[in-house]
Amino acid sequence: MKASKNKRDISPRYLFLALTVICIVFLVVSIFFKDQTRKIRNFFANIIVPVQESMDKAGNALSKGLDYFGDVKELKDENEELRDELKKYRDEASRYQAELSELDELRSLYELDEKYPEYNKTAARVFSTDSSTWFNELYIDKGLNDGIYEGCNVLCDNGLLGIVTESFDNYARVRAIIDDRSNITAEVGRDNALCNVEGSLINMQSGYLLVKDINKDAKVEIGDRVVTSNVSDRYFFGITIGYVTEVTLDPNNLTKTAKITTAVDFTDVKDVLVITDRKRVVDY
């Protein structure tokens, strides 16, 4: 305990003064006694210089490493920003594409509306279908509240899509002309020959519908337009159904049958026009 009490700490001020004196002494000696201190200087130089060079190299390497990691972080940040911008541009491109597609559909509906100015019409959108391949029976987002009733003719693309079979307050069911239950009284050729257009999903697999019961003397050629007849009990007159691609004489030698391509693409139906006028029905 006494040794601990008698022990005195050296003041930092005295220690600094002593080191300063020693440095001054070494400096004076090295200036006035160069030859005598050359070996000492060389000895310390051989020790200190390599250490200093190694420390410089290590410092440079560390600096480059820090710069590298800094650059990597900066590149990662820039990459993340570019990804965000790319996603934003892709989203905008998808939105513009959707708007352009919708604009094209609206333009098509407008052009279709112009083809049949004599009828009152309203636009509707398809929201469901009973088939995954063909739009032979589908549902539209307008119904009784919009003046759509059973029997309303439905148009799409360049012609007749089908007819409303059921109507509810806010939606309606539509049966397409390609459905197996569909049969339309129509006209074909320059003679406006009466005929019947039969719906058939099997035939549509091969890309056509059959037009039957054409008079053998009727002038029907490839490319002729087939339209709804004025004597049809369900469809308004003059709506395009399709175009003739082939004509053959039936075995009975009394009638002809034609194949037609439809005016509507029944694999992709989005927007339609519904004729809200109701055709007069004659009760027999």
Radius of gyration: 47 Å
Poorly predicted parts? 1-5
What is the number of independent domains? 2
Assembly type? single chain
**Helix and strand string, N-terminal first?**
HHHEEEEEEEHEEEEE
Shape annotation = rod-shaped
Number of strands: 12
Strand order of the largest sheet: 1-2-5-4-3-12
CATH class membership of the largest domain = Mainly Beta
Distance between the termini: 134 Å
Helical content stands at 25-40%
Percent of residues in beta strands: 25-35%
Number of helices: 4
Could you explain how this protein is built, in words?
- By secondary structure, this protein is an alpha+beta fold.
- It folds into two domains: 37-115; 121-275, Beta Barrel (Thrombin, subunit H).
- It has helices at residues 2-6, 12-32, 34-115, 201-205; strands spanning 121-129, 137-140, 153-156, 159-167, 172-176, 183-188, 193-198, 209-215, 225-228, 240-249, 255-262, 271-275.
- Strands 1-2-5-4-3-12 form a six-stranded antiparallel beta barrel.
- A hairpin with a 2-residue loop joins strand 3 and strand 4.
- The protein is rod-shaped and about 140 Å long.
- The protein starts with a helix and ends in a 9-residue tail after the last strand.
